[in-house]
Amino acid sequence: MTGRVSRFAAALVLVSMAAGCGVPTESTPRPIMVHGRPSTPAMVQPASPAPGVPVELLYLVRDTGLVAVRRPAERIPAIDEQLQHLLAGPTAAEREAGYTSALTGITVTGMVELRGGDATVEIGNRSDGAGRSDEVLAYGQIVSTLTSRADVDTVSFRHDGQPLRVPRADASLSDGRLTGADYADLVLPA
């Protein structure tokens, strides 16, 4: 009998402890701080592909940051195709959900050269109207999108065959190999 009472007492203690460990409720929603800044209200995310369906990951702009958007694909695109899809900008559904692109002032010429995990992107003329913050987002879109691929570790940029200095998220300029970590502070939750 004492074994049954002991089990009952232990179960009662566990139930009362679990009841005290809940998350308090609030009467109104409030922003959650992400990376030192409040998150934006939930936006409609374009439909996610079904499990097992190949996806193409593109980084688009929402508000003042980058968001990873997953597009269903028939197959994983070649690196040049993925960059062209990024340069084409958001689909109508993505625009409706609040996504834009900062790549309007940058011209990519030729194809991406992939050598030993480093993708080199040739940049043509840049429009004078692109502000520095737009350039940070633009290069962040390219680097984050390309380094999301299994075959790309770093991204470098060239202009007229010469290394091109591009802004990183911390506003420093780099003419070397960049990774997604260089733009991680700009990435917002989906």
Features:
190 residues, alpha+beta, five-stranded mixed sheet, two-stranded antiparallel ribbon, 4 helices, 11 strands
Structure commentary:
The chain is α+β, with helices and mostly antiparallel strands and 190 residues long. It has one domain (52-186). It is built from four helices and eleven strands. It has helices at 2-19, 79-88, 92-96, 132-147; strands at 33-34, 37-38, 55-62, 65-72, 106-108, 113-115, 118-126, 154-159, 162-163, 166-167, 173-174. Strands 5, 6, 7, 8 and 9 form a five-stranded mixed β-sheet that branches. A two-stranded antiparallel ribbon has the order 1-2. Helix 2 (79-88) packs antiparallel against helix 4. The radius of gyration is 23 Å and the shape is globular. It starts with a helix and ends in a 16-residue tail after the last strand.
Helix/strand order, N-terminal first: HEEEEHHEEEHEEEE
Strand content: 15-25%
Question: Rough shape?
Answer: globular
Q: Count of helices?
A: 4
Ends distance: 55 Å
Q: Helix content range of the residues, please?
A: 25-40%
Low-confidence stretches: 8-47
The structure class reads alpha+beta
Structural domains: how many: 1
**Main beta-sheet annotation:** 5 strands, mixed
C-alpha Rg (nearest Å)? 23 Å
What would the average pLDDT be, to the nearest integer? 79
Number of strands: 11
